[in-house]
Amino acid sequence: MTYVVTDKCIRCKYTDCVEVCPVDCFYEGKNMLVINPEECIDCGVCVPECPIGAIEPESEKLIKWLELNKAYSDIWPNITDKKEAMPDAEKHEGEEMKYEKYFEENLKDK
Question: Which residues form the 4Fe-4S ferredoxin-type domain (predicted)?
Answer without folding.
Answer: 1-30, 31-60
